[in-house]
Fold each of these.
Amino acid sequence: MQENSQAAEPQPASSKFVYDFTEGNRDLKDLLGGKGANLAEMTNLGLPVPPGFTITTEACRVYLESGSEPPALRDEVSAHLAALEQRMGRSLGQADDPLLVSVRSGAKFSMPGMMDTVLNIGLSDASVAGLAEKAGDERFAWDSYRRLIQMFGKTVLGVDGELFEEAIEEAKRAKGVAVDIELDAADLKELVERFKGIVSQETGGGFPQDPREQMDLAVRAVFDSWNTDRAKLYRRQERIPGDLGTAVNICSMVFGNLGPDSGTGVAFTRDPASGHQGVYGDYLQNAQGEDVVAGIRNTVPLAELERLDKPSYDQLMQIMETLELHYKDLCDIEFTIERGKLWMLQTRVGKRTAGAAFRIATQLVDQGLIDEAEALQRVNGVQLAQLMFPRFDDTAERELLGRGIAASPGAAVGKAVFDSYTAVKWSRSGEKVILIRRETNPDDLNGMIAANGILTSRGGKTSHAAVVARGMGKTCVCGAEELEVDTKRRRLTVEGAGKKTTVIEEGDLISIDGSTGRIYVGEVPVVPSPVVEYFEGRMHAGADDADGLVQAVHRIMAYADRMRRLSVRTNADTAEDAARARRFGAQGIGLCRTEHMFLGERREMVERLILADTDSEREDALGGLLPLQRADFVELFEAMDGLPVTVRLLDPPLHEFLPDITELSVRVALAESRKDANENDLRLLQAVHKLHEQNPMLGLRGVRLGLVIPGLFAMQVRAIAEAAAHRVEAKGDPRAEIMIPLVGTVQELEIIRDEAEQVIAEVEAATGTELGLSLGTMIELPRAALTAGQIAEAAEFFSFGTNDLTQTVWGFSRDDVEASFFTAYLEKGIFGVSPFETIDRDGVGSLVRHAVEAGRATRPDLKLGICGEHGGDPESVHFFHEVGLDYVSCSPFRIPVARLEAGRAAVQSKGSDSR
Ligand code: ADP
Ligand code: MG
Ligand code: MG
């Protein structure tokens, strides 16, 4: 992701558009694409790669900008082709012994929508006989030719692929056989005629017989595929620049379909699920290209190759070791064996599960292949977060119902419900429910909140269900297309294999795994994550029963903690949360909200405060709240003894503490009709009316409350100061920081500061202790960020409230926009990820950057932190490291993620400094 957001590197105006595989290397991904760069790397390692060359992304860029290939390209390709022909001793499509090639797309980042590879380019009516003759295998030649027409027809000429598939099925049916290898030369020859007929019919022209024309058309089709809708959408969402272009690889053909001593396979250098070293892969005899992964016939495990072809197997094992040592990482590979000779067709650093990423990183350190800093780059916070969700018990029996898209991780079990009303009703009576919809819309919001998990049959990772569920941190599987959801009859059906139909009715138990997308019938037992058990201190990494994963996580976390510059604090309001956060590695509290201290039984005191007519009534109400808050703070400071605790004074609008306006109106109306109106209720109703706001988010809240309600903030400051004094007396080490929310201008802060300082001085004098309290503000309004230089005069620290800052910078009301139109925005690619999930670097981020610089210019020792939800988001942590904050603060559960990413960010910025 980091890499993706970079713009295309400017290329020197070179006229070199073609690189032989011997000329490139793996660092040239910008120019040669991932596939081309790695083919060159393998070639230069001396591995058996079929010779070939790569047309650069630069050539593609010229084509995309000007609408035609750069004039020099044709000659350059001719020169490289001539060299290839000379080396191979035959020319492209030569009638009696044709050289054949594959044309393969390959951009810097692999992406869906790009053109599929076309194999066997160069075959024609003229050369098919030559190929048969040379190979001594007529069937093979016709099979290769029909594959070419099929692939070329579909991907280059845009013919519906189904037409070819149907023709194959028909041929098999006519002959009464089940699989393609049972078709003989004569059948395939007939099929070629059928295919050519399809091409003529669909395109109005024939299948091109000139080999060079075939090649040129295929190259152009690869260039064009850069701009398919699917590729464009993917790039927008992944923030891959639209102007990188793709490279094209021309690779001489090798044949796995030359009989039982030939075949094609895929392999990993270690197990991508566990990281264990061993033999992992699949092999298919007598097959070409994608056959091995397409499921047309049953593959055999790679280990089987040892028996089938020992020399090739041994050589392959050797090569896999070479690749691992060279890339210093797990690689995946594609290979083909042609009559007992092994050929390497592709390699790249392989994808892996989250658990394997941690294990492999530490295994590679132990092997001495990478150092600790590099190990940190091999894992990320998203993977760690995945490992921290509870999982379904691997050992428990389960019945798979279907699969969807893993949209929001976690393991959720509950009773199936098909509408939001039922979800809310059942969950109120204590039931756990899974809300199942075809797709969700804003009307489903309450149901989604009530549900344990959400399952939909339509929509992808950016669908409403997925976006909202992720925002809520709720387990979600979406787009499970095989499920037939019938909301009217309140049930879902799945056509399983062998026409077995499973029906789930409302109330039936169902289990969904948001980390894998799997859906199970009934209740699958859930087990806690061992990684969380470890962070909680209930499992020790050194213990005998600690598994390899926990040990790996333990080691990686130690690396991260050693490297990172950012401190990590937590957002916690209670002693219990604080204690947990400490176990997870929190170095203090970055945000303690105080609003919960005004709820429950204390609400009545808040009502009295709001209704107070006279100073003495108000002081009375505040006086009642003071000891309660003080006791809360004492507990909190004790739990965080020796570490900073940032306490935010009251932030939300007051009406949140008053009864609901409708309820109260009804109560008062009823009482009036009975003629026994309650004086207090009447006053309360008036107050509720008075405090009602059109836009509470932008209304009377934060510092504005402190300025308008006399004594409110002073009471909170007194409670904090007295609690701190109490802790000092108890030989504790309280480190409280008082934070003023929603400041827009320094004047607001100055007034509150003067008042606070006076209170603190009083408490210090009365208790005879020096409290060392510091006073700062949140930066969560654009004006505060813009005038940060002035605000820093009155603040000892800033804490960026990036939730509100995002709302106010974008003019978004989060609760409204996430549910209503974010899906549309994501689908249109306006942003790739919600700005509430990952900090918007360009907009919100640039205000943060400005405030950091302006604040530090005024007060060089200004302490800087962030307490929005972005504090636990991997990409955002990197940004906060870059702009030079002192700490991030996040919810207790996200602390390990923040620690890890802070370590990774430190390593990455060191890397780029020295470059
Ligand atoms: P993808 O990016 O979809 O993996 P590839 O370019 O790797 O596409 O090619 C698709 C399939 O064709 C792969 O199985 C690959 O190994 C095979 N293939 C590509 N080029 C050749 C070739 N020159 N000879 C034999 N097989 C090839
Ligand atoms: Mg491939
Ligand atoms: Mg706020």
Amino acid sequence: MNKDSKIYIAGHRGMVGSAIHRKLQKEGFQKIITKTSKELDLRDQLAVADFFDKEKPEYVFLAAAKVGGILANNKYRAEFLYDNLLIQNNVIHQSYLNDVTKLLFLGSSCIYPKLAPQPLKEEYLLTGKLEPTNEPYAIAKIAGIKMCDAYRDQYGCNFISAMPTNLYGPNDNYDLETSHVLPALIRKFHEGKLSNTEAVQLWGTGSPKREFLHVDDLADACYFLMNNFNEKGFVNIGTGIDISIKELAELIKKIVGYFGKLDWDDSKPDGTPRKLMNVDKLTNLGWNYKIEVEEGILSVYEDFKSKVF
Ligand code: GFB
């Protein structure tokens, strides 16, 4: 990419897309194209075709997706499959038709089988059954990887894929029904502190383990891969370190300064027991994360308080 390359960030208002936007602006890129979902509905084939025909982007970061935490994935199963397939099909196909030089497709660590060996190596894809709560989302993301590969095989397109671990950062979703665990816990402990409640209710048993990557690190890795990776398949993006949900809860409780109890609601699902990324492929390419989870949560909590709801 050159500083005057035309770059389209699909999903620039989301947590991931906005982080990629900040990174490209910081690097001095001048021709970044963005469209809100009101201006361009990426599920609309004709609208996407018209947009690509007019704008002719040279590079595409495909960060637009319907995303959510464990309950949202399970409740809106049809939307997670339908919306994500439409968005990625339209953007990838139009990128091919309009001679995009390179496209980066973003997925998620939930593409791996529920009981795959840990840490998760890229080669474990499609070696077992998926976690049921997020199967529709995972199927859509697997289709996206395979679509990039197929367009590379059949048409010679330089379309690559990256699979980030669980992410957090500015512009996250703090809606308690649809969010991921980290923003949900920040909000729950913050509100518990303000109203001096005796206990904060958390979901599941607290025993599952998760890996957390700050979205600014993810954006940095995406930029790195756009410049350095040109192969089939995909690359895991993570830290290679995980903690239990219980440990995460204790850490956020301490950062927020909440002194009450934790009340685990085990009628809510735990999801995958563990999904720790093997990040050897990425580190061998020359990239490493920078933001430690405690430091990241501290900065996110400051951001949350500055926007309080
Ligand atoms: O982050 P999360 O919603 O999604 O939940 P996944 C992670 C773990 O935290 C689960 C527990 O074991 C939850 O039961 N948890 C505890 C909570 N308290 C809460 C709470 O208040 N809110 C939430 N949301 N969780 C998603 C997938 O899985 O991860 C997506 O469904 C995607 O497809 C995403 O891959 C990255 O990590 O389980």
